[in-house]
C-alpha cells in the first residue's frame, strides 16, 4: 500500500540532535535545537513551575475535558501578559483568544482561520530567513507563502531597506508575519524606531500583521520590553493576530502551552470570531491538554509566583547574554580569530547567526564534535563555562581552515 511513499527528509533542526546523540566523543556540544540549558548543560525546570505543580497537585483537580478554547483562567492571563495590563482591546473585551498546542499550534490555528475567514488575501509574507517550520505550517494551512528581505549577509544585520521595499511592493492587505522579538534564526530584531516605521508601512499598505511571539521575556529579560512591537501595533490601531508560546519563557516545552488571539472591533465581533475559532479547532484536536495550562495560569495569576517567574526568565536571559560576552571576548581578544564578531554580542535571544559557512559547520561537527544547524545558527543556551573555551577554540580552527 505504501510502496510509492517516498522517504522524507528529517527536520533540519531536530536532525542535528540525532547526529549529536550518535556522537560518542565526551567533548561533544549540541547547539542545534533552541532549548534552554543551565550552566551545567542540563535542561532546566523553573522553580516557579515546580511550585505551581505542587499547588496544582494539592488542589486535587479532576481530569475533565477543557472547553475547545481551553482554560479561560489561563488564556485571560496570557492575553494580559502579551497585550499589557492597560491594553484597550483587552479592557473593552475585544480580544478573541484560544489556548493552543504551544506556539506551533497557535500558528496553525491562525493559518487555518485566516485561510478560511480573512477576506482580503491568501498570501502571507515571511522574513527571509524565518523559523524553518513557518513555511510548512502556513502552506499546509492553505496560504500562499512569500518572503520579504530581512537578513543582510554583508553587515550580519537587518536589511531594513530591503524589508521596507518588499513590504511596500507587497499586494495591499496581504498578511505579514513578524517575529515579535528574538528573531529565529538570526537573533536580529528591528529597533523601536524601525518597528514604528514598519507599523506605518503596514498601515499604509493595509497589510495584516501576524505576530509570532515565542520568546517573550527571553530576549531582554523583561516581558514588557519584549512585548514592545505587539503593544505598539495595537496602540496604533492595527488589528493583529498573535501566536504565544510558553515553551521557552516558562520552560514548558513538552507541556505544549500556547495561545492564539485576534484583536477585533467589538465584543460582538469577538464573539463571532470566537465561535469560528472553535469550528477550526474542533476537527483538529477537539480540546487542548490541561496540565501545562494550569501551570502557566497558576504562575501568571499568583502574586507570589509571578515575580518569581519574571526573575527566573531574566536569569535565563542574563546567562545567555553573559555567554555572548564570553564568546565575543574569546574570539576577538584571546584567539584573534579572523573576522568581525560584534554581532555575537548585539544579537538577541536564544540564537546567534554566527556567519559560519556550511563547510565550516560541517568541519565543526566532523572534527570537533560541535553540532549546529547548517546555516551557522547556534543556540547560545547550549554554551556554558565548561564548554565555551573548547567551542571558541574549535570555531577559531574552523575559521582558519
Ligand atoms: N515560533 C518560533 C519563531 C520559534 O522559534 C518556535 C520554536 O520554539 C515556535 C514558534 C514554536 O515552538 P513551540 O511550538 O514549541 O511553542
Ligand atoms: O528553532 C528552534 O530550535 C526551536 C525549537 O521542529 C524547534 O524553535 C525546532 C524545530 C522544531 C520544533 C521546535
Keywords, please?
single chain, 401 residues, alpha/beta, Aspartate Aminotransferase, domain 1, Aspartate Aminotransferase, domain 2, 2 domains, 7-stranded mixed β-sheet, two-stranded parallel sheet, 16 helices, globular, binds pyridoxal-5'-phosphate, binds (2S)-2-hydroxy-3-(4-hydroxyphenyl)propanoic acid, Aspartate aminotransferase, pyridoxal phosphate
3D architecture notes:
One of its GO terms (biological process) is L-aspartate catabolic process. It catalyses: L-aspartate + 2-oxoglutarate = oxaloacetate + L-glutamate. Its cofactor is pyridoxal 5'-phosphate. The chain is of the alpha/beta class and 401 residues long. The chain folds into 2 domains: 14-44 and 316-400, Alpha-Beta Complex (Aspartate Aminotransferase, domain 1); 65-301, Type I PLP-dependent aspartate aminotransferase-like (Major domain) (Aspartate Aminotransferase, domain 2, 3-Layer(aba) Sandwich), CATH 3.40.640.10. It is 46% helix and 14% strand. It is built from 16 helices and 13 strands. The protein has helices at 14-22, 47-59, 72-83, 88-91, 102-117, 134-140, 160-169, 192-204, 223-226, 228-235, 267-285, 291-300, 305-334, 342-346, 358-368, 388-400, and strands spanning 29-30, 95-101, 123-128, 144-149, 151-152, 157-158, 175-179, 208-213, 241-245, 257-263, 351-353, 370-371, 377-379. The chain has a 7-stranded mixed sheet. Strands 1-12 form a two-stranded parallel ribbon. Strand 3 (123-128), helix 6 (134-140) and strand 4 form a beta-alpha-beta unit. The longest helix has 30 residues, at 305-334. It starts with 13 loop residues before the first helix and ends with a helix. 47% of the residues are buried. The mean pLDDT is 97. Bound molecules: pyridoxal-5'-phosphate and (2S)-2-hydroxy-3-(4-hydroxyphenyl)propanoic acid (TYF). The site of pyridoxal-5'-phosphate has 13 residues, from helix 5.
Amino acid at each position: 500500500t505504501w510502496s510509492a511513499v517516498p522517504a522524507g527528509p528529517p527536520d533540519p533542526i531536530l536532525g542535528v540532535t540525532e547526529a549529536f546523540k550518535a556522537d560518542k566523543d565526551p567533548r561533544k556540544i549540541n547547539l542545534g535545537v533552541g532549548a534552554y540549558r543551565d550552566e551545567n548543560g542540563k535542561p532546566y525546570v523553573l522553580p516557579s513551575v515546580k511550585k505551581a505543580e505542587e499547588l496544582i497537585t494539592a488542589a486535587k483537580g479532576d481530569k475533565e475535558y477543557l472547553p475547545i478554547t481551553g482554560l479561560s483562567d489561563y488564556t485571560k492571563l496570557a492575553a494580559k501578559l502579551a497585550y499589557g495590563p492597560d491594553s484597550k482591546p483587552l479592557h473593552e473585551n475585544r480580544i478573541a483568544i484560544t489556548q493552543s498546542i504551544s506556539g506551533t499550534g497557535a500558528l496553525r490555528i491562525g493559518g487555518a482561520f485566516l485561510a478560511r475567514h480573512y477576506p482580503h488575501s491568501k498570501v502571507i509574507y515571511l522574513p527571509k530567513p524565518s523559523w524553518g517550520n513557518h513555511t510548512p505550517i502556513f502552506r499546509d494551512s492553505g496560504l500562499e507563502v512569500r518572503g520579504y528581505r530581512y537578513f543582510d549577509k554583508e553587515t550580519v544585520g537587518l536589511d531594513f531597506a530591503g524589508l521596507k521595499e518588499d513590504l511596500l511592493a507587497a499586494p495591499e492587505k496581504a498578511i505579514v508575519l513578524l517575529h515579535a522579538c528574538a528573531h529565529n534564526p538570526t537573533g536580529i530584531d528591528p529597533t523601536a524606531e524601525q518597528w514604528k516605521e514598519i507599523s506605518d508601512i503596514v498601515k499604509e499598505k493595509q497589510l495584516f500583521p501576524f505576530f509570532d511571539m515565542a520568546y517573550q521575556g527571553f530576549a531582554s529579560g523583561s516581558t514588557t520590553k519584549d512585548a514592545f512591537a505587539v503593544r505598539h501595533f495595537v496602540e496604533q490601531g492595527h488589528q493583529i493576530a498573535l501566536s504565544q508560546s510558553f515553551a521557552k519563557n516558562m520552560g514548558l516545552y513538552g507541556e505544549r502551552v500556547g495561545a492564539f488571539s485576534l484583536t477585533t472591533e467589538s465584543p460582538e465581533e469577538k464573539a463571532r470570531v470566537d465561535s469560528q475559532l472553535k469550528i477550526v479547532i474542533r476537527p483538529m484536536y477537539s480540546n487542548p491538554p490541561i496540565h501545562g495550562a494550569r501551570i502557566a495560569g497558576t504562575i501568571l495569576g499568583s502574586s507570589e509566583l509571578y515575580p518569581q517567574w519574571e526573575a527566573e526568565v531574566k536569569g535565563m536571559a542574563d546567562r545567555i547574554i553573559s555567554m555572548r560576552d564570553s564568546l565575543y571576548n574569546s574570539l576577538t581578544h584571546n584567539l584573534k580569530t579572523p573576522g568581525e564578531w560584534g554581532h555575537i554580542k548585539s544579537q538577541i535571544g536564544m540564537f546567534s547567526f554566527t556567519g559560519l559557512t556550511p563547510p565550516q559547520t560541517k568541519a565543526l561537527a566532523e572534527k570537533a564534535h560541535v553540532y549546529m544547524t547548517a546555516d551557522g545558527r547556534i543556540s547560545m543556551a547550549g554554551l556554558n563555562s565548561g564548554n565555551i573555551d573548547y567551542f571558541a577554540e574549535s570555531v577559531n580552527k574552523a575559521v582558519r581552515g
